[in-house]
Structures are given as C-alpha cells and as structure tokens.
Amino acid sequence: MLAYYLHDLNPLIFRLWDDVGPRWYGMAYVLAFICGYVLLRVLAKLGYADLSPVKVGDFITGCALFGVIVGGRLGYVFFYKPEMLREPLSILRVWQGGMSSHGGMIGLLAFTFYYARRHKISWRNLCDNLGVTAPLGLFFGRCANFINGELYGRAANVPWAVQFPKELLDHPTEADRAVAACVQIDPSLATPEAIVAAVHRQSQVAAPLRSILTPRHPSQLYEAFSEGIVLFAILWIVRTRRRQPNGVLTGLFFICYAIFRIVVENFREPDAMLIAGFTRGQFFSFFLIAIGIAFIVAAKMRPTFPKKMPV
Predict the structure, then answer these.
(1) How far apart are CA 7 and CA 64, in angstroms?
(2) In what order do the strands lie in the sheet with 5-6?
(3) Is the pLDDT of residue 311 over 90?
(4) What are phi and psi of 20, to 5 degrees?
(5) Conformational region of residue 10, where left means phi above 0, alpha means psi within -120 to 50, and beta covers everything else
(6) pTM, full prediction
C-alpha cells in the first residue's frame, strides 16, 4: 500500500492566539488583487486597455469588494449552501472559506458594466483585460482551497493521492471510526471538527487517520493548473499577439474556463446534489459557454478595438 500524503497543512500563516491569525485563504485574495493590479496597469500602458493606468487601483478595488467578494460569497450561498440564509451572519464569515467562482464572475460582470457606464468606457474592453488577469486569481484561490483541505477530489489510487481530514465532516461512518480511535489518544478529540483542527498540531492522530481516510485526487491543484496557469497563458498570448475586437477575450475566457471546469469536475468530489447527472460546477459551466459564445458573436458583429492598441 502506498504511503499517501495525509493533509496536515495549517490554514493559518501564523497564530496570534487560539485559531486567530492571518490565513492563507485571505493571503490568496491579497496576492490575486496585487497581480490583477500590476497586470492591468501593464496592459493599460501597452495600449490594450482603455482604462487609464492611474484609475486601475480604483477599478481593482471595486472589483475586489463588489465583484469577487460579494458576488463570490452570494454565489456560494445561493448555488451551494442556501441553508446559510437561515443564519444570515454566517454569510459574513468569509474567512472560513466558501466562495463560488461562478458567483464571482457574475459579480465582476455586473460591477464592470456599472463602472464602464459611469466612466463612459468600453464595457467589453474592461471585461477583456480583466479576463486576462482573472486566471491568476483563480490560481491563488485554488491553492488556498488545497491548503484549507476543502473541495477535495474523488477517491483515487494514483501515487500523488492525498488523504483529506475534512472528509470526516461529510462522511459519518468514517467520522465515527475516527472519533473512536482518536479519543483514546486525547479525550478532547470527541468530534470530527476537533480531529480536523488537531491534525496539524498533534502528529499522533495521523496513524489512525491513515487507515480510515480515503486517498483522493488533489483536484484543487488540477484546477489551479488548468483554470489558472494554462488559461492565463492562452489569454495572455491572444491578448498580446493577436488583434481581436473587444469582447473576444471575454468570450474565450468563459468558454475555456467552462471547458476546464467541466473536465476537472470529473476528479472532484461533488459538494452538492447533482443536477441532471452533472455536478453543480459542470451544470453552471454550460451557461458560461453560452455567455462566452454570445460575447464572441457580438464582438464579431459589431467590432470595436482598444483605442491605443499596438498595430
């Protein structure tokens, strides 16, 4: 039997007291916004973005607050966890994880439309350049999902499979076995939540968990690579080496993201009820393909180009 890696990464960068301290999940968003700011300024200076370089900071701040955070969180609540509406304050606990990439995209579309109308610049051009930078945010977000041990993959026997303790929160049978084994080590480990929290602090709980937890695909890393690195490379090449009308890159972003998501979801454990045999991530991605096609068709029918695009 292979000695699979037992996930024991600490979601805290460092601890101030108890479970309070800066988290990798929050750091992922900080890095995403910094990269978005830097790349959007580069695109603006090169003439690919109609947005002035001096206004990039305000635009990225608005995208972060109203697009990604609000849209992503509300998307998670409505698409995946509507029961959170019964406890509205739980919606504000974003540091505990739980963001929807589909919701974030809807939020970004809405904010960029508002921003473009208010500042009288091309909405499609804004979306294009934001779409080029977005995969880096997806990359950092998926890496944070892996560090948190959440949104894990399906059962696997590949050499790089990982055992995720948070499986105990979703599978009562394994949770009961883990509690029975771990209370003999420490009586305080009487709940699955306590065991999950103890994994990175008490190395002795690893032995019983190795015989209980299921080896799984690290699907978060698959998504980080495909939706992050590969998608960014595709969009950056098209943006800087091909003269395309405003809207094409937005359409390409939606279509490629949706295809990658649909494929990788086959390796990810469903985190909600299936819809017509598809995971929710796959189901919502079909709508993204339709949106992407609509952007490309509109761009080709009524072509406009960045005002200072290099010839």
Answers:
(1) 30
(2) 5-6, 162-163, 215-216
(3) no
(4) -105, 130
(5) beta
(6) 0.88
What is d(CA 123, CA 113) in angstroms, rounded to the nearest whole number?
6
Task: Name the residue type at position 289.
Answer: I
1 inside domain: no
In the chain, the number of structural domains is 2
Q: Nearest Cα to 129, choosing from 311, 310, 306? A: 306
By three-state DSSP, how is residue 85 classified? helix
Q: Which of 57, 34, 66 is CA-nearest to residue 140?
A: 34
Query: Measured on CA atoms in the order 75, 84, 149, 153, is the torsion positive or negative?
Result: negative
Which residue range(s) make up the domain with 35?
21-156+217-301
pLDDT digits (tens, 9 = 90+) for 195-220: 999 998 888 999 999 999 999 999 99
Which residues are registered as beta bridge partners of 50?
none
Q: How far is CA 163 from the centre of its chain?
A: 21
Mean pLDDT throughout 289-310?
90
DSSP string, 173-186: HHHHHHHHHHTTT-
Residue 82 one-letter amino acid = P
* Same-domain check for residues 89 and 221: yes
In a domain, 96, yes or no: yes
Element (H, E) at 216: strand 215-216
User: pLDDT tens digits for 13-57?
Assistant: 888 877 778 888 889 989 999 999 999 999 999 999 999 899 999
Taking Cα atoms as reference points, which of 135, 144, 106 lies closest to residue 24?
Answer: 144
Residues 6+ apart with CB under 8 A from 228: 135, 136, 138, 139, 140, 142
Q: Which pLDDT value is given to residue 95? A: 61
Close Cβ partners of 231 (under 8 Å, ≥ 6 residues apart): 135, 138, 253, 256, 257, 260
